[in-house]
Amino acid sequence: MSGRKITLALISIISLVILYLNYNDNSIKSKELFSKDTTEANDISLPQIPLSMKVQVINSGTKKNEDTGVFECLPDITFDEEASMENITHYLRSLDNLFSESAPLYYAMYANPPEGETRVDLLFEYYDQFPNNPVVSMDLISLCANSSDKRCTSNFIKDAIDADSNNGAMWFSAISFYATKGDDQRVMESIEALEKTSFFNERLGEKALLYAQALEGSTSNDFNVNAITGVGKAMSVSPSYSSVTRWCKQGLDEYVKAYACLTLGKQLETRSKIAISNVIGIELQKYVFEFKGETDAIQLIEKNRIKLMERPGEGIYLKASIMLILDERLLRSWLHNLDLHGEIESQRLMILEAEIIYGGNQNYLCTLIYEMLDGFL
Q1: Which domains does the chain have, with CATH numbers?
Q2: How far apart are the first and last CA of the chain?
């Protein structure tokens, strides 16, 4: 189903639900007769997204699950999108003059750069004052790969990695930087370092929550809308995949380089939390196998690719995805799973948790919309 049809269906459903609620308000109250103990027990199964130690100092005023009222599934629909974006742009720029602990970070990450400056400039300004923020360091390394900024040196990359050196995703950003610069030695050293890391996390969920937090003080403070937008913004600052694939293709006749690509490919396939990185990892391995003529290995890796791209049943997946837009409880849980389990597994968990949440019927309106979606999808 196209995005336009989904939107129209969603608006139709919400309209019907509002009419239904106005007609029979008493039925809502009868459906809400759940004990406090039951509500608290169900909330425990939907953990909040864990912020990194460096971002955890930010105080969020976002509502928690237990504050979700019966009408929380009614979205904050904005028909003047241009005015909304203008308000957001103005608000983020105003953070440059706001004296608070978190404002400089929000400004560096999301404000439109002043004339003559770039995102790299804003991030470096923040980095110079607070060099140990892993989110800023990771974004800077990724952006430096395609930047001519003189501050983007190998020494800077080394120092920036220290903010999150046990994270394989940080090393992959460095690999893309060194591959862009044609620094073979540092690429291979970084692949070795990546292999030894204790975890691999691109922090997509964390960055999405960060964007939602940045807009809490604005008039455009709908958590669900902003968090989902934040995921897109996080994905837009990614390592230079093309430089990595090009580096591998050009060195397949060298054993050491080919082995490094094979290692990197397996690491991305099995450890990255982002689906595109999983696919790139499979392709890197396939390059090596095709060059060597290893047909059995090619067939096996192709099976892995097909399995990776398998999606849940379209109808139930679309239902859960729509509820992700509407219900903060489901969205917070998905953001947590995105960083903990990865993009692919978080889709499956989203469906399972939607069944649990709306089967429990803690929020009558959310449950009603979820059930009515069957007739539209």
Answers
A1: 3-75+313-375 (no CATH), 81-257 (1.25.40)
A2: 8
